[in-house]
Design goal:
Number of helices: 11
Strand content: 15-25%
Radius of gyration: 34 Å
Helix content: 55-70%
Largest sheet: 4 strands, antiparallel
Number of domains: 2
CATH superfamily of the largest domain: Homing endonucleases
Number of strands: 8
Strand order of the largest sheet: 1-2-4-3
CATH topology of the largest domain: Endonuclease I-creI
Length: about 325
């Protein structure tokens, strides 16, 4: 099972204790995965998903919130090329109207409102209901990548107003979220590990949050080690290249100018560098008599390099 699937599996087992939170979560699931149809006078309210656990969560919420039994609905399974689509259908008019009225999708004239509009603000005025709504939205329209590979969480909306409402709700919890238009869908997304971690906490996926943080720590530690190794490798390469250039200059001076013509400090520096080609500047300074610091060693080597350049020209 993918990490996204594991998160949804955990969320399907989380049932809010308060009825108003159950309604908020159910409203999200209907807005993002529900469909109302009226055919030959028969009214149905269906819910569609590719996740069987999500369809069970939907039925559980209906049962707890409205006391609707399994005999009042029917379930179908449609097989596609690589996946299954599960549908749960309410076909008793009384239940259909009762649910739609509760989630504010039925007006005073018993006209069904569009599911693509933002959810009624009354349903999500409390912080706990906002958490439940985001949980239902993720179950129905959300997905996330494996944190071992990348940090990416998204919720797919059919129109911009839905996306704006979702983004604003997430940002209300001090989590940065953005919207991008992908083909005909508006996608609310998070790409920062910290933001995704916060959102998992908001929707109360605590087990998944711990697993996400564990993988995040391992990944960041691995990246930190890689950066340090790359930095040290670069420093070693730089040191080797500098040492090779210094030795080349010193040999040129020895063969074309002679060490005897150098002042004592430069002659000693040249001899020590030839004797210890792999030594660092600090180590070279310790081999001199008296010892010299890194800046003193660098100064003498620079003098030798300047002399070698003059000999070349």
């Amino acid at each position: 099972m993918s990490f996204s699937g594991e998160v949804k599996e955990e969320l399907t087992k989380h049932i809010s204790a308060s009825r108003h939170c159950q309604i908020a979560e159910l409203a999200a699931m209907i807005h993002f995965g529900g469909k109302y149809q009226e055919t030959e006078g028969k009214k149905t309210l269906s819910f569609h998903t590719e996740n069987q656990s999500v369809i069970r969560k939907y039925f559980t919420l209906l049962q707890k919130t409205f006391n609707i039994g399994i005999d009042a609905a029917w379930e179908t399974l449609e097989s596609q090329s690589r996946s299954h689509t599960y549908s749960f259908v309410l076909d008793e008019e009384e239940h259909v109207y009762k649910v739609l009225q509760t989630v504010k999708l039925l007006n005073a004239e018993y006209e069904v409102l569009s599911f693509e509009q933002p959810v009624n603000a009354v349903l999500i005025k409390n912080s706990c209901c906002q958490r439940a709504f985001l949980r239902g939205a993720f179950l129905t329209a959300g997905s996330m990548s494996d944190p071992e590979k990348s940090y990416h969480l998204e919720l797919v909306c059919t129109n911009e107003m839905q996306a704006i409402q979702l983004r604003d709700l997430i940002q209300g919890f001090q989590v940065e979220a953005k919207i991008v238009l992908r083909k005909k869908y508006y996608v609310v997304y998070l790409k920062e590990g910290g933001g995704i971690s916060d959102l998992l906490n908001i929707v109360e996926a605590h087990v998944s949050l711990m697993e996400f943080e564990n993988q995040r720590i391992v990944k960041e530690m691995r990246n930190s080690i890689n950066r340090r190794v790359n930095c040290e490798a670069a420093n070693i390469t730089k040191t080797v290249n500098a040492s090779s250039k210094q030795i080349e200059d010193i040999i040129l001076i020895r063969d074309n100018y002679g060490f005897n013509n150098l002042q004592d400090s430069l002659r000693e520096m040249a001899e020590v560098r030839l004797d210890y080609p792999d030594a660092t500047l600090k180590e070279l300074g310790q081999y001199l008599n008296p010892p010299v610091g890194k800046s003193g060693v660098n100064h003498r080597l620079r003098k030798l390099s300047e002399l070698a350049d003059r000999i070349r020209t």
